[in-house]
Design goal:
Distance between the termini: 204 Å
Structural class: alpha/beta
Radius of gyration: 58 Å
Strand order of the largest sheet: 1-2-3-4-5
Helix content: over 70%
Strand content: 5-15%
Largest sheet: 5 strands, mixed
Shape: elongated
Length: 348
């Protein structure tokens, strides 16, 4: 019995030892596998971290570069905006100067005239009213009753910028009373300018009975046309027509067509005179052809008589004995006078 228990104890101890060995072996294997797994994971984490870091660094560099470029563009744009603002300020200063505004309007008017008309069809700084020293900026030359007479069409450029700007500011603020007030101020300014044109530059019959008030800005011209009855009043009371850049170009084109029609009429008279001269000379040419025809007929008759005489001589010479070759050479060597005498003898 004791031996059996001892054997069982020994077997149990052996089994425990084997179990412990197996457990230790499995633990060692699991530990190695875990270490390998941890090492692989760490390597992958390091690799991913490196790739992510490089990607983030590259993206950050591109972003910073792009941001730098955009900031430089913004800075250049700000510089251009500052330059533009400075230019606008300078332009505003220029436009607030009455004399400078008048010069700008005069330059624009001169450019339109130069573009459409020829230099012979207009003049600048012209005294259109006799006994006056006032000179209009530009005047168009129109033909008078006599071909040497010139009738002037005065054109004066005006630029009431202050009144127009005040009206625009009032319209932007939607201030109805101020809009009415500034609109009346603009009307009064336009009437004053039209009155000056009538009093200084209109002098029929040396000029036409109306002048042109040129407004260099289409918006200003449209605003004047919007004023009820202003355009008709200027034509009726002051004999002045308002024109903007587009309207003035249309008027100048119409005048250019009239100038061409007048030139064609003048040239048509010259053409008729030339045709009359050609007709007279053609009649003389016919007489010359008749005389030439008679001379040709006389020459033909003379040639025909010579031909008949040649045939007669030929018939006379048919019975003449042919000379030997040696005598022929001798006869040919004779003097021209002797040969002529022999020929006259043969003919007789």
């Amino acid at each position: 019995m004791n031996e059996v228990l001892l054997f069982l104890l020994i077997a149990l101890n052996i089994a425990l030892i084997v179990l412990v060995v197996i457990l230790l072996t499995r633990h060692s294997t699991n530990t190695n596998a875990q270490e390998r797994t941890e090492r692989v994971v760490k390597e992958e984490i390091c690799q991913n971290r490196k790739e992510i870091s490089e990607s983030l660094q590259s993206g950050l560099d591109r972003f910073l570069k792009l941001l730098n470029t955009q900031l430089e563009s913004v800075q250049r744009g700000l510089g251009e905006m500052q330059s533009l603002a400075s230019g606008v300020g300078d332009l505003k200063k220029v436009l607030t100067n009455v004399k400078t505004r008048g010069t700008l309007g005069e330059i624009q008017l001169g450019a339109l005239l130069e573009q459409i008309l020829t230099p012979e069809q207009y003049a600048n700084n012209v005294v259109t009213k006799k006994g006056s020293n006032d000179r209009v900026e530009f005047a168009i030359k129109l033909p008078g009753r006599d071909s040497k007479d010139v009738v002037w069409l005065p054109i004066d450029a005006k630029f009431p910028m202050e009144d127009y700007q005040k009206l625009l500011d009032a319209q932007e603020m939607a201030n109805v009373p101020l809009v009415d007030e500034t609109g009346k101020m603009l009307e009064a300014r336009i009437k004053s300018e039209a009155k000056d044109i009538r009093n200084k530059y209109l002098d029929p019959p040396h000029t036409v009975d109306f002048g042109i008030l040129f407004l260099p800005i289409e918006g200003l011209y449209a605003e004047v046309l919007r004023r009820p009855g202003l355009f008709e009043l200027l034509q009726r009371d002051y004999h002045v027509t308002i024109a903007g850049p587009t309207t003035l170009a249309a008027i100048l084109n119409s005048l250019q067509i009239g100038f061409r029609t007048l030139a064609i009429e003048k040239r048509s008279g010259e053409v008729w005179a030339i045709l009359g001269t050609i007709k007279t000379e053609f009649a003389k040419f016919g007489e010359i052809l008749d005389k030439a025809q008679k001379k040709v007929q006389e020459a033909g008759n003379i040639i025909e008589d010579a031909s008949r005489k040649s045939r007669t001589i030929d018939r006379k010479l048919r019975n003449v004995q042919t000379l030997p070759a040696q005598d022929t050479v001798i006869n040919l060597a004779q003097e021209p006078e002797e040969a002529d005498e022999n020929q006259q003898g043969l003919i007789q």
